[in-house]
């Protein structure tokens, strides 16, 4: 693309931005960090200095008004995603927004509509979907490498319950385990199945000590053909992140599915009485996410359409309804 780079502004100084997304953008050949905005001016300046960024704004509005910014990354607390994504779109900026995109499917559709009307690209930041291992796994399934699909298992848990001031434990800010980590196995199952689920049943631990957000949840997500995802997720359990896909003639393990290490195998295939490891792809999934975003801005078909986020939020809505009402919920 002739050395062209997508110019980024970062709205907020969340840990995910500073520790993962910004370093990935900085090392990308298609993207460049141009500005940071933080309501804590000193923090914003410190982040900018860390990455050699000249511009550090004390108000988000100032960043959106900068004509030299093409795209923004939004890692703000969940309840602020909708407002700032729509304001960014109205300012003509492309939007990469942290997961969950928003707090429900209605808000997700509003964001999609606003970005489409403004002619900007919108993407939900699920970095793991850009790792080549996911495409390899899906192709292996499509080619019949494990026979017919029978079941999927997935989990993403960690224990941070002692940090009472954490924003994940603010119900009015969109806190909760399903929003924070449950979205990962849920999107992975949708990716593998290549269709939407039919029903969900979820049980959750809503903790009064954590503003009654869901600190743990376990569920069954039903797909057509008798295939289901069984999953658990939460913020008050030992650390795990994995997906296992079971077929009639084999199974695929995706170790450390969402946060793989440098030496983590792409997958482990058990089939025909043999075990085979696919070697680790030496990639930064956050950089690949940024590169794919840039290509979509420049006209390539996006790997994941914005509407995918709406479908994902419909599933999350159903999971929360099931957990609160203690009932099986069918989806459209």
Automatic annotation (TrEMBL):
The lineage of its organism: Bacteria, Bacillati, Bacillota, Bacilli, Bacillales. One of its GO terms (molecular function) is oxidoreductase activity. Residues 6-123 form the Gfo/Idh/MocA-like oxidoreductase N-terminal domain. Belongs to the Gfo/Idh/MocA family. This is Gfo/Idh/MocA family oxidoreductase. The keyword Cytoplasm does not apply. SUPFAM superfamilies: Glyceraldehyde-3-phosphate dehydrogenase-like, C-terminal domain, NAD(P)-binding Rossmann-fold domains. Keywords: Oxidoreductase. Coiled coil: none annotated. Pfam families: GFO_IDH_MocA, GFO_IDH_MocA_C3. It comes from Cohnella nanjingensis. Residues 135-253 form the GFO/IDH/MocA-like oxidoreductase domain. InterPro entries: Gfo/Idh/MocA-like_OxRdtase_N, Gfo/Idh/MocA_domain, GFO_IDH_MocA-like_dom, NAD(P)-bd_dom_sf. It comes from the Bacteria.
């Amino acid at each position: 693309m002739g050395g062209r780079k997508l110019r980024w502004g970062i709205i907020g100084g969340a840990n995910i931005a500073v520790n993962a997304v910004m370093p990935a953008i900085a090392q990308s050949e298609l993207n460049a960090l141009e500005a940071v905005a933080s309501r804590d001016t000193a923090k914003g300046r410190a982040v900018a200095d860390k990455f050699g960024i000249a511009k550090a704004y004390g108000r988000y509005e100032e960043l959106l008004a900068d004509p030299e910014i093409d795209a923004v990354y939004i890692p703000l607390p969940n309840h602020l995603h909708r407002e700032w994504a729509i304001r960014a779109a109205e300012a003509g900026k492309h939007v990469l927004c942290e997961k969950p995109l928003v707090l429900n499917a209605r808000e997700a559709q509003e964001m999609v509509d606003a970005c489409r009307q403004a002619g900007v690209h919108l993407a939900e930041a699920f970095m793991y979907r850009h790792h080549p291992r996911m495409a390899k796994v899906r192709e292996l399934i499509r080619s019949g490498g494990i026979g017919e699909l029978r079941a999927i298992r997935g989990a993403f848990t960690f224990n941070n319950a002692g940090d009472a001031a954490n924003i994940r434990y603010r119900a009015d800010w969109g806190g909760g385990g399903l929003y924070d980590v449950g979205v990962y196995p849920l999107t992975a199952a949708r990716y593998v199945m290549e269709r939407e689920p039919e029903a969900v049943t979820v049980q959750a631990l809503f903790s009064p000590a954590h503003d009654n957000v869901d600190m743990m949840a376990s569920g069954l997500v039903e797909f057509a053909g008798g295939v289901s995802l069984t999953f658990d997720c939460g913020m008050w359990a030992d650390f795990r992140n994995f997906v296992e896909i079971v077929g009639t003639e084999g199974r695929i393990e995706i170790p450390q599915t969402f946060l793989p290490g440098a030496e983590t195998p792409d997958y482990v295939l058990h089939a025909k009485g043999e075990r085979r490891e696919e070697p680790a792809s030496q990639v930064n999934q956050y950089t690949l996410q940024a590169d794919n975003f840039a290509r979509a801005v420049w006209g390539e078909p996006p790997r994941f359409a914005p509407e995918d986020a709406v479908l994902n939020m419909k599933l999350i809505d159903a999971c929360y309804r099931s957990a609160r009402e203690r009932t099986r919920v069918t989806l459209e």
